[in-house]
C-alpha cells in the first residue's frame, strides 16, 4: 500500500534488520529504508513456505531478520508459516499493519461498524466445500463479509457463488463495495448492491465488502450502524 500507511514500528524494525526476506515486489517498495549492507533474500509468488524457512534459518543463525509482506503479517500472510517453523530459540516480534480490508473499508466509508468476518475465496489451500460452509455461516449470521482473493483468471466462478449464497439471506439492495488497489496507484472504488454487482470488475487486486442486512448507503458512503442504544 501507500508508504504513509507504514507504521513507525515497521520502519524501525526494517532499519534494524541485517537480513530482509520477502516477495520481490514488496522488497522493492522498502529498499530505500534498508541500511547499507543489509542482505536481501527476495523470491517470487508461490514461494511463501521457502521464504518462511529462510527467515527462520537466518534467525537461528543469529541474524536480525525482517520477514516482510503487505498489510498485516498475521492476516493471510507470512506470520503463520514462519511461526509454524520457529521454535523457542527465536525471539519473534510481530508488527501490526494496515490490512487491505481496512484500507478498502476506509475508502468505502464505515462498513465495519458492527460484526464482520474475513473470508478468502482461494481454494488453493482450503477445499471449496469448507469455504462454502463458512460463507453459508456468515450469511446466516448476518455478518458484514470481506472477501479476499475473490477472483482470478483460473478461479472465475467462486465469487459469483459466494454472492448468491449471501443474497439468499439478505435483501437485494444490500450494499456491496469493490476496491481495487487500495492506497496504491490505480486505486478504484466501486459501490453497487447484491443485485447489481458485476464480478467481472473484480480480480486478485480487489477486496469485496458485502454489507449486512443493516448496512446502508449514506451520502455515497457505505455505513454499517454500530447498533448501540445510547443512554443518558
TrEMBL record:
Annotated Tetrapyrrole methylase domain residues: 1-197
Any single biological process term in GO? methylation
Which SUPFAM superfamilies does the protein's record reference? Tetrapyrrole methylase
**Pathway connected to this protein:** Cofactor biosynthesis; adenosylcobalamin biosynthesis
| The UniProt record lists the keyword Methyltransferase | yes
Looking up Pfam families in the UniProt record yields: TP_methylase
Query: Keywords on this record?
Result: Cobalamin biosynthesis, Methyltransferase, S-adenosyl-L-methionine, Transferase
GO MF term list: methyltransferase activity
Query: What PANTHER family does the record tag this protein with?
Result: COBALT-FACTOR III C(17)-METHYLTRANSFERASE-RELATED (PTHR47036)
Task: Provide the protein name.
Answer: Precorrin-3B C(17)-methyltransferase
Can you name the source organism? Answer: Micromonospora globispora
Amino acid at each position: 500500500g501507500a508508504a504513509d500507511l507504514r507504521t513507525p514500528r515497521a520502519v524501525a524494525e526494517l532499519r534494524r534488520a541485517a537480513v530482509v526476506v520477502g516477495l520481490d515486489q514488496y522488497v522493492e517498495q522498502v529498499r530505500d529504508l534498508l541500511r547499507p549492507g543489509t542482505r536481501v533474500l527476495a523470491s517470487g509468488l508461490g514461494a511463501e513456505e521457502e521464504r518462511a524457512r529462510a527467515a527462520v534459518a537466518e534467525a537461528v543463525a543469529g541474524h536480525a531478520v525482517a520477514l516482510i509482506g503487505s498489510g498485516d503479517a498475521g492476516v493471510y500472510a507470512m506470520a503463520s508459516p514462519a511461526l509454524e517453523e520457529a521454535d523457542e530459540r527465536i525471539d519473534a516480534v510481530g508488527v501490526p499493519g494496515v490490512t487491505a480490508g481496512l484500507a478498502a473499508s476506509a475508502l468505502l466509508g464505515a462498513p465495519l461498524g458492527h460484526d464482520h468476518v474475513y473470508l478468502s475465496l482461494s481454494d488453493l489451500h482450503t477445499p471449496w466445500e469448507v469455504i462454502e460452509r463458512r460463507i453459508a455461516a456468515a450469511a446466516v449470521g448476518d455478518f458484514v463479509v470481506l472477501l479476499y482473493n475473490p477472483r482470478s483468471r483460473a478461479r472465475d466462478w467462486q465469487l459469483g457463488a459466494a454472492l448468491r449464497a449471501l443474497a439468499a439471506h439478505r435483501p437485494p439492495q444490500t450494499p456491496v463495495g469493490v476496491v481495487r488497489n487500495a492506497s496504491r496507484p490505480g486505486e478504484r472504488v466501486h459501490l453497487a448492491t447484491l443485485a447489481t454487482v458485476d464480478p467481472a470488475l473484480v480480480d486478485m487486486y480487489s477486496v469485496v465488502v458485502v454489507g449486512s442486512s443493516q448496512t446502508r448507503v449514506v451520502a455515497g458512503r457505505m455505513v454499517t450502524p454500530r447498533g448501540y442504544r445510547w443512554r443518558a
